[in-house]
Amino acid sequence: MTNTGEANKERNREIARNEEVKQVTGSARVSIWAIAMAVIVGGILFTLGWLSLR
Predict the structure, then answer these.
(1) Distance CA 44, CA 31 (A)
(2) Which residue ranges run through the membrane (predicted)?
(3) Distance of alpha carbon 39 from its chain centroid, rounded?
(4) What gap in Å lies between CA 50 and CA 48, rounded to an integer?
(5) What DSSP character marks residue 48?
(6) pTM of the predicted model, to two decimals?
(7) Terminal-residue alpha carbon distance, the chain
(8) What was the pLDDT predicted at 1?
(9) Residues 23-43: b if buried by 16+ CB within 10 A, e if exposed
(10) How does pLDDT run along the chain (54 residues), one tens digit per residue?
C-alpha cells in the first residue's frame, strides 16, 4: 500500500513538472509572437509616417 501511494505521489510530481514546462513554453511562445507583432506594426506605422512627411 505504501509503495503504491509513493508511486502515485511521484507520478503526480512528474505530471506537475511536465505541466509547468508546457506552461512556461506556451507563455514564452505567446510573448515572442506579441513582440514580433508589435515590431511589425511599429515598422509599418513608422514607414507610413515617414512617407507622409516626404
Answers:
(1) 20
(2) 30-53
(3) 18
(4) 5
(5) H
(6) 0.64
(7) 80
(8) 52
(9) eeeeeeeeeeeeeeeeeeeee
(10) 568 889 999 999 999 999 999 999 999 999 999 999 999 999 999 999 999 998
DSSP the chain: -HHHHHHHHHHHHHHHHHHHHHHHHHHHHHHHHHHHHHHHHHHHHHHHHHHHH-
Three cell numbers written together for 8? 502515485
- pLDDT attached to residue 5: 87
pLDDT at 54: 85
- Cell digits of residue 11: 507520478
Rounded CA-CA distance 14/32 in Å is 27
